[in-house]
Amino acid sequence: MLQIENVYKTFNPGTINEKKALRGINLTLNPGDFVTVIGGNGAGKSTLLNMITGVYSVDSGKIIIDGVDVTKMPDYKRAKYFGRVFQDPMMGTAADMQIEENLALALRRGKKPTLRPGITAKERIRFKELLSMLDLGLEDRLTSKVGLLSGGQRQAITLLMATLENPKLLMLDEHTAALDPQTAAKVLSITDKLVTSGNITTLMITHNMRDAIHYGNRLIMMNNGEIVFDVSGEEKKSLTVDGLIKKFSETSKGMLSDRTLLSD
After folding, report:
1. Looking at residue 34, what is its pLDDT?
2. Does 52 reside within a domain?
3. pLDDT value, residue 201
4. Which pTM does this prediction carry?
5. In-domain check, residue 140
6. What's the CA gap between 92 and 106, in Å, rounded?
7. What DSSP element (H or E) covers 170?
């Protein structure tokens, strides 16, 4: 579903602020893979997602999605392949629009406009069914303005919007980092349910090592623009936080951030 071949990216080359963000990244994701990504500050995690989605262009290398080479494709053209949820719960929804209007926008993304009425009765039934899966009581609040919801509720709706049409890839960029621990746990549970039920190929960046171990079928660790550890299957299931810290020490010369070390 995703092939990254020898991708390099340097910001501000030739200047005092030069930063080699990605150094020959090679990564292949099979359909249905749920990969958690962990690493210290500046490891290249968010840069990797931004390269895949086309926010940044690559210096060299290839990015192939479901057999299509998107390396030189602009971000707005490759957006049809992705669902993405950001760290800030306010970024994924339109605050002044109703819940059902936000979901309808997600449903129509990438489709040609028609002259039919805005939201059909059939669509409302589907929205209620999907919202009931969240177990947040939102299925009875279709006409509520999204801006009146809590951060956790908005992030849950953003997840629904991102997965509504089963994207080729789902990108989760520390999407629970701004939430309190209880809400974050709820949103992660919803994430796991949506990803598993839709068999959606997913990349999830997290600073929480326990979450990185618990969720998904594969874990990669990045450091200094490189993938230094890649584990899946039974080996991943047997990982511990202490073991992950030890592995980081063995495979890199850097240090995990305090934020990561304290988020186990």
Report:
1. 93
2. yes
3. 93
4. 0.83
5. no
6. 10
7. strand 169-173
What is the C-alpha to C-alpha distance for residues 226 and 208, in angstroms, rounded to an integer?
A: 19
How many CA within 13 A on the CB side of residue 225? 13
Give me the pLDDT at residue 30, please: 92
Residue 120 located in a structural domain: no
Q: Which domain holds residue 244?
A: 2-96+167-261
Determine the Cα–Cα distance for residues 193 and 153; give it in Å rounded to an integer.
Answer: 16
Residue 101 lies in a domain: no
Q: What CATH number is attached to the domain comprising 238?
A: 3.40.50.300
Confidence of residue 21 (pLDDT cuts 50, 70, 90): confident
Question: Quick one: DSSP state of residue 255?
Answer: -
Question: Domains in the chain: how many in total?
Answer: 1
DSSP 176: T
Token pair of 36 as six digits: 């958690």
**pLDDT the model gives residue 44:** 86
Between the two ends of the chain, the Cα-to-Cα distance in Å is 30
Strands 218-223, 60-65: pairing kind: unpaired
The two tokens of residue 75 are 């971000």
Tokens (6 digits) for 252: 């890199």
